[in-house]
Amino acid sequence: MERRHWGWLMAGVIGISFIYYSVFSPADEMVPIATPQGETDIDSVAVYVSGAVECPGVYILPQGSRVADAVKAAGNWLPYADAESVNLAQKVSEGDHISVGYDFAPPESALGITLVNLNRATEKELETLPGVGPATARKIVEYRTENGLFGVTEDLKKVKGIGEGKFQKIRAHITV
What we know:
By secondary structure, the chain is of the alpha/beta class. It has six helices and five strands. It has two domains: 44-100; 109-175, Photosystem II 12 kDa extrinsic protein (DNA polymerase, domain 1). Helices cover 32% and strands 12% of the residues. The longest helix is centred in the N-terminal third of the chain and has 21 residues, at 3-23. It is flat and about 70 Å long. The N and C termini lie far apart (54 Å). Residues 25-40 have low confidence and may be disordered.
C-alpha cells in the first residue's frame, strides 16, 4: 500500500473512533449519586451491589442496613446466584461493594433431579433417562467401553442414535 493510502486509512480510523466514543460513551449513562459538598445525609449509606442480582447498581440505604437489604434493593437474587458468596447478616458501610457470586451448577436436590453419571452408570441406570431405552443404553455402555470415559456430557452426542434433540432431553439429568 502506498504511503498516502496509509494516511487516509489512519485518518478514517481516528474519525470513526471519535464518532463511536462520542456516541456510545458510557459517561452519558453514569449518574453521580454524591450529594453536593456540605450536604451529607448521616442517616444513609451508598453501597454498590453487583453480580447475580436483578438490577446491579448503587443504592442508598438507611444507616444500619444489612447485606440482605442491599440485595433486596437490587431486585433480589437471580436463579443462579450463589447465596453462600455473601454474608446476608453483615451490616453495610458507606461505599461498600457487595458482589453476589454466580453458581451455574445448583445442587441436584434443588433441581429435584438425580443425576446419572455417564461414566459409571449401568445399562439399567441409563434406561432411567428420558428417551433412553435398552438399545440406547447398550450403545452408551459399548461406546464407553470402546472409547474410554466421557470427558464432558456433550460427548454423549458421539454415541450413534443420540442426536441434538435426544441430548437436549437428557442433558439436565446427566453428569460425568
